[in-house]
Structure formats: structure tokens, C-alpha cells
Amino acid sequence: MSKLMTSLTLAAALVLSACSTTSPDVVQRGDAQRLSQVQDATVLSSRPVTVDGSQSGVGAVAGGVTGAIAGSSVGGRREGQIVGVIGAVAGAVIGNAIERSATREDALEIIVQLRNGERRAIIQAKGTEAFNSGDPVVLVTTGGKTRVTRAPAVVPASNG
């Protein structure tokens, strides 16, 4: 039964970690082929932050079930029931902690100034781009979510 518990816990952790990406380098399927608003801006500052993990309940449920199964196999019928309940509670607490840890992300808080002088702050997961004070960037807003990316180099059109 110990191998089963280990396998279930590992499977739950893998499922939870697969669900956690808000990377600016990954575009959600629903955002593909949608028109986005683009605004030019300049980076004022950028600092690392941590986005706290989610607690959807999936980790607690998976941990609780795993703990109940493992605990119920201990001793006789009565002991198994008692240890099963204790295992379920302990498993739920551990599963919740695993979910929260697996969905925690390193991120950046980027403060920018728009061309009209307004300032905005955007928090996004760390991607492949680094942002320094003075960098030209664009804010890409799609479906109410905004991400920051480096501004592309502007090449003057040739008249010839």
C-alpha cells in the first residue's frame, strides 16, 4: 500500500505542477488569433516578486484520499477506520501544501510609463526577457490580461 500512496502523491504533484504557468512566453489557446491592444511604454523599474500558490482544493482532496487509503490498511477494521480518518486529515493538509508549493511562481513587478505620462504596474511570471530601467517595451492586452514584452526595433520604410 505504501507504493500506491507514493504513486498517487507523485501523480497529484505532477498534475498540479503542470497546471501552473502564467509565463509571458506561453500564450493561452483562447488568446490565439485575437486582436490585442498594444501600448508603447518605457520601463521605470523592475523587481523580482513571488506569486503565491493557489489552493483550489485539488491537492487537499488528492492528499485526503491517499491518506485515507493508506491509513485504512493499518491494523484491524476498527483501527483501520480511526487511522484512515487521521490519514485523510493529514493527507489533506500535506496535499494542500504540495498544491500551494507547486503553483507558486517567481515573477516580476514591472513599473512602466506610457507615452502620455501615465504609470502602470504589471506583475507577470518571469519569462525569457529581462527588463531594465529605460528599456522601451510594449504592453499587450488581450482579454483583460496584460503582459510586457520588449518593443520591436522600428525600421524606417524605404521609399524606393
From TrEMBL:
Signal peptide: 1-18
Ranges for domain Glycine zipper 2TM: 59-99
PROSITE patterns: PROKAR_LIPOPROTEIN
InterPro entries: Gly_zipper_2TM_dom (IPR008816)
Keywords: Signal
Domain of life: Bacteria
Pfam name, any one: Rick_17kDa_Anti
Name of the protein: Glycine zipper 2TM domain-containing protein
